[in-house]
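Review box. Two proteins, two foldings.
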Amino acid sequence: MPLALALAPLLAACSSLPFGGTGDRPDIRVTESPETGVMRPQGRPGAAGAETGLAPGMEAGMEADGTTPAAPEPGADGLLGETLAGIGAAGGPGNWVETGLVTARRSGRVETQSGATLDVELRPSGAAPSAGSTISVPAMQALGLPLGQLATLRVYAE
């Protein structure tokens, strides 16, 4: 009971703070809406009830006819392209990169921005070539990459 009497003045003082009550806030009403040219955020593809702006059955990275763009052909030096890679599923043994830059498993090599290189197995991700990639934990460690960060990799076919 004495505690309740001690807290009563403190609780009464809280009603004058700007949170909780209506206070003396002005009544603001928005009378204009943004024009149709204003960009709005889109929901994630496949999310229930999300407006993605894509036709039914389409996913981000697909062509208008519903196909995924073809993986690039390697250049004269075997370069397939650059990708932003993050840590892949744990437990997958070996050095591998899962990427949209290939359509079938093949041997390859990756190079970091610092110049470190590693022979890896390139695995198709089924995503567009411009989509990000995943890399195995052992490969990230061998390249000296921090496990919690994304890394820019140059991907080469062997």
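Next protein.
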Amino acid sequence: MVVQRAGADDEVRAVLLTPRPLDADQARDWGLIAEVVEDEAVLARATAIAEQLAAGPSRAYGEAKRLLRTGWNESPENISRDEADTIARLLAGPEASARVERFLSRS
């Protein structure tokens, strides 16, 4: 559980064990969310993030999410090995090759 990894200090326990609300700024400060935007900017910001993700290396994003999920239950040695294997596999794949070619063609 994320709270266990975070060390669950008294303030975290208070939010989890009482009906005390957690506001957006506090959630961001605790690392539970990445950013806070004003209500009127939510759709534009969500669209920008979606476009950025859609244009990016989707397989690498998927592998990063997998590593984040599985890392909580593994030893540091297993995590490091899995990360290294994943990076090597992705670098040998078509997404990385296409991005390297695009980068090199800019020079």
